[in-house]
Each structure stands twice: as C-alpha cells, then as structure tokens.
Amino acid sequence: MDFETTFFSSPIGVHPEDIDVRPRLGYWQSKRAFLLSRGLNLYQLSSPRPSMIYCYPPCNPNAGGTLPYAIYEDSVDYDVMSNIPAFRFGTRGVVVPAVDELNRHVTLKLIKNGSSEYKTLRRIMSLQARSAEGILSGLVPVLELIPMDAHWVAIMPRWSGQPVTGWFCSVKELLFCVEELLNGLVVLHSQRIVHRDLAPHNCLTNYVPAGPNRIDIEDPANAVRQLQSSHSLRYGWIDYGFSVPLPLEIPLSLCRFSWQASVPGAWDIPYDVSQGEYIYDPFAFDVGTLGIFFCAMCQHLTPQIPLLAPFLDRMVTRDISSRFTAAAALDFVHHIQETLSEKELEQPCELPGYEERDYETFDRWRGLPDTFIAQWGHMREPSRVPVWTRVLRFACGYMWIEGAVRYYRRAVDYILGHRFQVLSVE
C-alpha cells in the first residue's frame, strides 16, 4: 500500500468527499488482529462506500465517564425504535474508533513518522506528562502513540460534537468555553506550535450522545445544558495535520511564514494575506482565526456582555500589530469573568439569530452605553472596511497585480531594514 497517497496526501483539486476511502478502511481491517493484541477492538464497519462509512461499537459504552474519557449518554434512554444504531461514528478512514479492554471508547489516527504532526503530538504528550492531572486545559488528551508499519497510531479519547451544540446554559459556561479554547491555544503557542486549522469541526467536548439530533437546543433541560450547569463539560482542540512545530527559542513576534502557508487549514480565516502580503505572522493568524470562530459564537451577545466587544475586536482587528496574542486574549477573558457579578454570570445566553453576521462588518458596539464606549473605544475596530483596503483586495484578485504588490512589499521591507525569520512549512 502507498501510505503517502492513501493516508498522508490528498490529490490536488480533489474534494475530500470525493476520495475513495475504501483502501484506508481496508488497511485498518487488516490491522484488526494487531490492534486487538494491544487491547484495542475496532468498531464494526458497515458496507464499504466510496466516500463515507459508518462504524458501530462492538458494545455500548458505559453511561457516564471520567476525564480524560468522555461522558456517554445512557443507551437505555436511546429510542429503541430508531433505525440508527447507538453511538455510530462516521469516518473517511483517516480516524477510526475503537474500544479498549475497559470498554473505554477511543479514536485512532495513523501518523506519519517524523512528520510535523508527529512532532506536535510528542510535544503535547511531554507537557501532559509534566502536568498535575496528566491533561492540558483546552486540548483533547493524547493517550498514547504506538508504532505500526514504520509509522505511529495516535490514540485519543472519543469526544464529539462542536461545543456550541446545545448552546450554553449561562454566561459563566460560555466564558468558560472561551477560556478553555484560548488556554489550549496558549499552550500550543508557548510550545511554538502553530495549529493552522482552528475550525469548529476541530473543537470537541467530552460528551457523546447516543445518536444524532438528540439535543434540543431550545429545551432548557437538555443533556448538554445539564452537564454545563454541573460544570462537567470540557472543551478542547484536536487535529494537528496542518500544525507546524517550530524551534522553542524563536520569538513569537519575529516568526513569519510565506503567504502560501495560509491556504491549507480552516475555511474562515482573517484577511492577513488578502492585500498582497508576501509573508504573514502565523501566531497572529491563529488568533484571528479563533477570533472569527468566537464572533460566530457570541458577537450577538455584546449587549448582554459589553466587554465582549473590545475582546472580539482585538482578536480580529485588521491592524495585526494591535491584535491580541493568545495569552493577552486569555488575560482579557479572565478580566471579563472577574468584572461580572455572580448574578450576571448565571444569566442564560440568548440564542444567535439565523441571519448572516459577517465578523468584519458587524457592529459589536451598537447600542452599548456611551460611558462604556468612552472607556473602551480605543480598542474598537471600525465596522466599515476602509476603501483603500477594499480596493487593494479587489485588485489582488488578479494574479499579476497580486504578484506586483507582493514584490513591492518585499522591496519596501528590504529598504526599511525590516527583518523577519521566514520559516519553511512542510
């Protein structure tokens, strides 16, 4: 089997859903006996299909659960009339689920030996080993790396879903989720790891329902809200397939990637290279990407939590030199938490509307008190994109203009003596 083609690369111009996943799943099936010898029983596979396959656990998980493993819905509560088996797992063969000898459900991912993803996972595991609880706030734990066919299998607990599923029972829980996700990014950046794929689908919580559509977001008694109320949920990042671990001695402020490195990864990204920039700050780019995610999650709540306005604006500001670092953003979240009263923290969060609210043009300060704006207005990002910026973005839609602008920017930096450490990306 050609591992490089089957697992570690995607054909150029081919959508992931159009890739035939059957060779990947055939490989995992061939390793079933080996994995059993390591105490891992793969889920049963449904009939193979070209682009997607569903897996079913050999036995239902035990209800409840303790960290680092997920909390599972009691399968007794699952509708026995459903034609969808409980706890099914959809996969394209890169990540597959399994059960260990204690009926704890995990996921397996084949990791290329010596790759950036492998180095990232090793750094995370080293940090976990030095932490008091063996886990890192804001990151889904890495349980083990086992060798297989000259590569590695990363074992992680099976968590699921996007944290916003079921919404948040209170302002306190919303801010805790934001705090956890920021803390995960702070950990990565402190280890000079650029994530590059801070997308909603890579953000999980330690609760697994028995089936799809099991959570009524408008039901105040739904399972997720109950777990939030008891402060039982944790939130964390996964998937380091696009990550870049850099030398630990590199200063965050001087690190730059070539503009091409901004293309792989998350879909909703800041416009840091849309004006003909030839290099960009990857750590600030991570923060901007996460800021866009947070805007989609909670920018409509600024009338209820006014300090979200300067917080979000500083995460997504077009002035990259003024953008929060991950650590500064986390400090500001702590400030928000300390400023609110217990009564304000216990207030429920309003559900977001259905209309599109672009992070760059949405006015997060609308309706806020004049006294608040006077105090925090220095952190305000104009909700109208400057004309010159819009013109430059439009012009850079033409490749020859974009190339000329990049050449000009490079020349200006050289003349002015701006020196950055431009690092290569795999």
TrEMBL record:
<dbReference type="InterPro" id="IPR000719">
    <property type="entry name" value="Prot_kinase_dom"/>
</dbReference>
<protein>
    <recommendedName>
        <fullName>Protein kinase domain-containing protein</fullName>
    </recommendedName>
</protein>
<dbReference type="InterPro" id="IPR011009">
    <property type="entry name" value="Kinase-like_dom_sf"/>
</dbReference>
<dbReference type="GO" id="GO:0005524">
    <property type="term" value="F:ATP binding"/>
</dbReference>
<dbReference type="GO" id="GO:0004672">
    <property type="term" value="F:protein kinase activity"/>
</dbReference>
<feature type="domain" description="Protein kinase">
    <location>
        <begin position="81"/>
        <end position="362"/>
    </location>
</feature>
